Each structure stands twice: as structure tokens, then as C-alpha cells.
């Protein structure tokens, strides 16, 4: 199978490096195109993938096309490549936030049965610890869907998810790595305040958060049970925990997630 990427930005780079490192496909099976020629050539050389000079040539060359471009350019890209899409009939995989499969199909303005799969991945696919939600539009067959699921299982965890839940997933797993990085950076920054070098403090905070996530996933314990295990009576943790809650830590995080969901829905409706 040949996989093409339209757009070689942050997310495409993370997916490509992840699936090549894991051996899901070889670099020779990957074709790239980006309007930023320098970026295109640089990624292609770095990973050993092929690159082409137009989105049309890319679609002609591959079986699966990942639309790794911003939501506001997808309509234009589908329209400029429409005739090639309609003759080649590749599987289109969109990773764009706030862009439902119905809208993507409408952009093609056709009755031809083009298979479209929607994926909401996250950037942690780069290190094989991604999270991706996947749903297929009307004309996707099981074999095509299975291929996409396997592609994202190669670089993390993948769920088949009803499309109506995509906004929620985008907030919980697509955008949330940024919030987790912020949390880690905030802990590290506090370390710097107390005299630790930033790099060491960041490593310490990241390792603590990495282990905490694994504890939840591997023990299957409720996070509150684990919180209680860390909070020694009269100890340090409970003092810090209550200080965080005085500043409405839980409500602040929930507000961030609410706002992310609302923004995704706003993009859906555009
Ligand atoms: N960054 C992230 O963590 C995640 C991003 N996404 C989605 O992935 C998509 C891409 O996001 P990023 O990689 O962050 O953006 P980015 O801005 O890093 O990459 C987009 C790339 O598309 C290229 N491009 C623009 N117009 C083009 C055209 N007409 N033909 C070919 N290439 C073109 C740009 O030059 C750029 O390199 C977005 O739709 C976003 O919603 C989804 C999940 C996570
Ligand atoms: O910020 C965004 O719109 C994209 C979608 C999920 C993560 N980044």
C-alpha cells in the first residue's frame, strides 16, 4: 500500500515518523506534498520518503491520501484535485479538527462513491503513544477501515468512535497533549523558582506525569484512590492538593475542555 500526505506540518511529520519507526510501512511507500517546498524536501530527506510537486500527482501515486492540512484549506484542495480523486478513487483520510465526513464529501460535490475516513489523532503518535478516534463515511469498506485502524494502532491506541463524539474526543485526546505539556512545564517552572535547572526540572516533572498516567492505565484504579495513596495524613501532598483546589484546579481544567469542545463545534458549523 502507498500512503500520501497532503501537508507535511506538525501532525503529518509525527504520523510519518511514527509509522516508519514502527515498521507499519517503509519510507518508500510514503509520498509527500506541501506547498512549502523547503519543508517538503527537508522531511522527505529526513525520513527517506518520496515527494511530488503537486497534490494531483500525489493522489495519482497512492492508495490512501492523508489530508494533513488545516480545516480552512481542505475545500480548496479537494476542489483543485477533484477530477483525479474521482478517477483514482483513493481512500481519503482527513485528520482535520471540526470537519465532519459529510462536509468533506459535500466539498467534492459528486455522486461518485469516494471512501472518506475521519481520524482525530494526537501528536504523541511521534513516540508511539498516540490516541486516535476513527470513523468511516458511507462508502468506506471494512478492509479500508481496518487499514486505517492498524495504521494508528501502530503508533498508539485507536478507537472506532461515532462521529457525533468527535468534538469531545478532540478535546480529551487531540488537544489535551498541549494541556498536559503545560501542566508538566508549570511543575518544572516551580522547580526553577526553587532553584532547580529547567532541563532537570522538566525531566523530573515529565517522568512523574508519565508514571502517573501508566499507573492509571495499568492498575485500572480510580484516580481518586491513587490520589489518596499519595496523600499521607498531615503530609506534603494534601497541603499542595488543597492549595490547587483553592484556585479551582478541577473547574479550570473542565473549563478548558468545555472551550475546546465548543471551538470544535463552531468549526463544524462553519
Ligand atoms: N497539531 C496537532 O496536534 C493536531 C492537528 N490535527 C489536525 O491536523 C491538521 C494539520 O495540522 P498541523 O499539522 O498542526 O498544521 P501545520 O500548519 O503544521 O501543517 C499544515 C501543512 O499544510 C501545508 N499546506 C497548506 N496548504 C496546502 C496545500 N494547498 N497543499 C499542500 N499543503 C498545504 C502547510 O504548508 C503546512 O506545512 C489540521 O487540520 C489539524 O486540525 C489533528 C490532531 C492533532
Ligand atoms: O488545535 C487544533 O485545532 C488541532 C486539533 C487537535 C489538536 N490540534
Automatic annotation (TrEMBL):
Catalytic activity: L-proline + NADP(+) = (S)-1-pyrroline-5-carboxylate + NADPH + 2 H(+); L-proline + NAD(+) = (S)-1-pyrroline-5-carboxylate + NADH + 2 H(+)
Residue span(s) of domain Pyrroline-5-carboxylate reductase catalytic N-terminal: 2-98
Predominant location category: cytoplasm
Domain Pyrroline-5-carboxylate reductase dimerisation: 163-267
Keywords: Amino-acid biosynthesis, Cytoplasm, NADP, Oxidoreductase, Proline biosynthesis
Pathway: Amino-acid biosynthesis; L-proline biosynthesis; L-proline from L-glutamate 5-semialdehyde: step 1/1
Record carries keyword NADP: yes
The keyword Zinc-finger is assigned to this record: no
Alphabetical list of InterPro entries matching this protein: 6-PGluconate_DH-like_C_sf, NAD(P)-bd_dom_sf, P5C_Rdtase_cat_N, P5CR-like_CS, P5CR_dimer, Pyrroline-COOH_reductase
Location of the protein in the cell: Cytoplasm
E.C. number: 1.5.1.2
Domain of life per record: Bacteria
Database matches in SUPFAM superfamilies: 6-phosphogluconate dehydrogenase C-terminal domain-like, NAD(P)-binding Rossmann-fold domains
Enzyme's top EC category: oxidoreductase
NCBIfam families for the chain: proC
Family named by the database record: Belongs to the pyrroline-5-carboxylate reductase family.
Purpose of the protein: Catalyzes the reduction of 1-pyrroline-5-carboxylate (PCA) to L-proline.
Protein name in the entry: Pyrroline-5-carboxylate reductase
Lineage: Bacteria, Bacillati, Bacillota, Bacilli, Bacillales
Gene name tied to this protein: proC
